[in-house]
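Aim 2 progress update. The chain analyzed this quarter is reproduced below.
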Amino acid sequence: MQNQKLKLVASSLLAFFLMLILSVSAVVMLTTGWRQHAYAIASEFPLIIISSMHTYGPGVIVGAFSGALLFLLYFMYRCIFQTETLFFKRTEKILASFALAGLLVMFVGSHIITAHWQSKADAAGFAPCPAMTLLPNRATMEVWVKNETLCYDPDMRRILRRGTKDEIAQVAQHLNAREKQQQARQKFLQQEAKIKDGG
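Predicted structure tokens:
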């Protein structure tokens, strides 16, 4: 009997802490993703990535936090008080409903937040690359560009592998270097043409 109680205590507390860690992680993921997207859209980058990973955050927060409270309640009433009151039964139903609602919030919230970033990117002059042109192996990522020819640029395909911040910075550096090379080449051709005309 004592052994069963210890197992119940351990499993309830373990589930509580796991759910709590999951909800805190979702808060961090949501706030970090929000800041990154806001920065990318406000930046002068020629290419940005809109990721839907952080958009599941609100649903995970609601579901996981409700689950954490549910397991804490379970621990309190089953392991400490060792009784079930009317408050316990009602609260258990409410928290279980919130935990299930988290699934709905996860998908609806994801759609709403993704649409928000797409609208912001569109207003900032970005356009989405067609599917399978860049990052075809990343189902949760969309590449948006200021110049649509970049969607079919082999250099972009070579640089973009995982859609990280470093890769976006590399793209900007590469395009900047390429523009300088083109300007230098045009200047050289113009000087060459002047020499020929003078000759």
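The two ends are 105 Å apart (CA to CA). The mean pLDDT is 87. These observations will guide the mutagenesis experiments scheduled for the next reporting period.
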